[in-house]
Amino acid sequence: MSTPVESRQARVIDELRVFIKKVLSDPTIAVKSVDIARKHRLEADANELIAREISANTTIRIPEKWSEADRMFLEIIDEVLDDEEALY
Fold first, then answer.
1. Long-range contacts of residues 71-80, Cβ cutoff 8 Å, at least 24 apart
2. Can you say whether residue 65 is alpha, beta or left, with left for phi > 0 and alpha for psi between -120 and 50 degrees?
3. Please, what sign has the CA dihedral across residues 10, 13, 19, 25?
4. What is the pLDDT of residues 4-27, one digit of tens each?
5. Phi, psi dihedrals of residue 44, rounded to the nearest 5°
6. How far apart are CA 17 and CA 82, in angstroms?
7. Considering the entire predicted model, what is its pTM?
């Protein structure tokens, strides 16, 4: 029997697997997501705006109540933009 922590980790892994499949099947998702994040990054409630626009413009669906995987995705986009800024 798995513990609650193991169950949560399994659920996050499953969500990330589905996400990775979507990105690999449509490479424009990553570019669109980063462009959307770049546009809203400095606004109040940036992650909320980013999540809504990504959901509206890609096959990625980020619900109103975010899962751990959704949060991780938004954090990773922010890290990508941080790295991008560091290059300049």
1. 72/12, 72/16, 73/19, 74/37, 74/47, 74/50, 77/33, 77/34, 77/37, 77/50, 78/37, 78/41, 80/34, 80/37
2. beta
3. negative
4. 889 989 988 998 898 889 888 998
5. -65, 145
6. 25
7. 0.83
> Which domain covers residue 62, as residue numbers?
4-87
As given in the structure block, the two tokens for residue 26 are 């449509």
- Residues 10-18: contacts with CB within 8 Å, 24+ apart? 11/67, 11/68, 11/69, 12/67, 12/68, 12/69, 12/72, 15/67, 15/69, 15/70, 16/69, 16/72
CA distance 10 to 80: 25
Q: Which residues of the chain have pLDDT under 50?
A: none
